[in-house]
Amino acid sequence: MGTGLALVVALLVYLPLTLLAPVAKASAQTIPSTAGPQAAAAPDFPGYGVGAIGAIGWDGVLAESGDGQPHAMASITKIVTAMVVLEKHPLGADEDGPSVTMSATDAGYYSYYQRQNGAVKPVKAGDVYTERELLQLALIESAANYAQTIAVWAYGSEDAYLAAAKDWLASKGLNSTTVADTIGLDPNSRSTASDLVQLGKLALAQPALAQIVDTKKADIHGVGEVENTNYLLGHDGVDGIKTGTLDGYGANLLFSASWKIGGHAVRVVGVVLGAPDHRTLKGDLVNLLQSTHDGFHSVDVSAEGTAFASYRTVWGQKTQAVAAAKKSLLVWSDTPVAVAVTADPTGVAVKGADVGKATFTAGPNTVTVPLELSKGVTDPGAWWRLTNPGSLG
Question: Which of 88, 109, 167, 222 has the most CB atoms within 10 Å of its CB?
Fold first, then answer.
């Protein structure tokens, strides 16, 4: 009697525990996944001078040509001037900034730089311009006299400005860039192509400056219409930044361009120094821009339903962790695409249950794909539970 009662009690305890206990979860087995190799980029740099291409978000440069040494910047120097002025007198997007009254000294810059064969625009003592207008005159029209005016206005003298510029360049890691004047007529205002790409990235991060260098024309009181010297502006996605010309050193262009590639936004920054003339440079830059554009690839890293991990339960059911969405990644050149899969163990679960993610990385770009079960996992049933108690959680 006592033995029978004990057996009944044991069954009353065993059966509920066995039938209701959670089953052991199945671990994920990652399925190897790689994006196919992409074609290597071949930016078509001109055969003269030096050049470099970079992109916003990518460190350093993507490609470069030439000797890597500092060369005369010419009027690209005015971008340094603008950046150092904005360091002391910040200007937000659409802000005009403080008003500046022209003096006899400012009027004298006109005749001085005209004698130096620099680009100039008219000015007279008593004229009043905003900080934005001075920057427009210095950068759109490349007026040397107004670049000198705004630098001296901000720092009190050219020497004080040059000291501030030296400190600013050092603080930004532009260690191969030297400024000897405010406008670039001095060939000792020099930089490397890679430094100038970084300078261009910094300039585009300033909203007011990005607006100004993307302006084709502006009408300024007392001066009239000023027209951008950047002959590529508005073509092939070009939206900046600054031309430069210096007798004996050739034609230069620091440029930026914005594109959509497979739905991905990319903004490149590049420079070429030392072209024979701007006509030659214009044609060669069209080729450089196109070949750079072709060096970016929109890579499909997953389609909906792509399997990244598999499961097999101890009672024999199979399912997979699959991509819940189609995703693509912007890749430069033949940069390898790395994938990291995180898939959680699964027990009984419905089809479409969230089980993890697959993260793809190429250079600075990352995309994450959510993973879900391709099929549900059902309970193994009473008989399996009763006959496999060691597999219960």
Answer: 109
pTM confidence score: 0.91
CA 164 – CA 172 distance, rounded (Å): 12
Angle between helices 131-139 and 144-155 (to 10 degrees): 140
**Whole-angstrom Cα distance, residue 166 to residue 159?**
11
Q: Mind listing the pLDDT tens digit for each residue in 40-93? A: 999 999 999 999 999 999 999 999 999 999 999 999 999 999 999 999 999 999
Left if phi > 0, otherwise alpha if psi is -120 to 50, otherwise beta: which for 220? beta
Contact 338, 361 (CB under 8 A): yes
CA distance 284 to 387: 78
Q: Are strands 307-312 and 318-323 parallel, antiparallel or unpaired?
A: antiparallel
- In angstroms, the CA 269 to CA 61 distance is 9
**Dist CA 183 CA 143 (whole Å):** 9
The answer to whether 284 and 298 are in contact (CB under 8 A) is: no
